[in-house]
Amino acid sequence: MHGTGATVSPLPLAYTEESAAALAARWRDLGLDGVFAYNDEYAMLLMSALQDEGVRVPEDAAVIGADDLMLSRLLRPRLSTVRIALPSGRGLAELVDRAVRDPGATPESHELFEATVVQRDST
Asked: pTM of the prediction?
């Protein structure tokens, strides 16, 4: 993650402490310097297992999750994450309501998913 060229390697990880511990035990042999986890919960699970294995975060392994859970801000190191802005139910309902009330109106275009990297201490 720190270099200019990146190699992406998918790593299977079940949401269990045992799976995270097994991956953390192999971490140094994998030759990786960072991980982007499925979400903050998986990132926190793996980060804890890496630390238990003596792998320093972020010095030896950068960790980033997704979802921006409140808990990710409370960890040490604080977890970097990707914040994904999802459309609100109210906004979608209003869009559908406008389409039903005025079917001949000019079509609207909306950005539905906006992602922002929130860099904290784990990267």
From this structure: 0.74
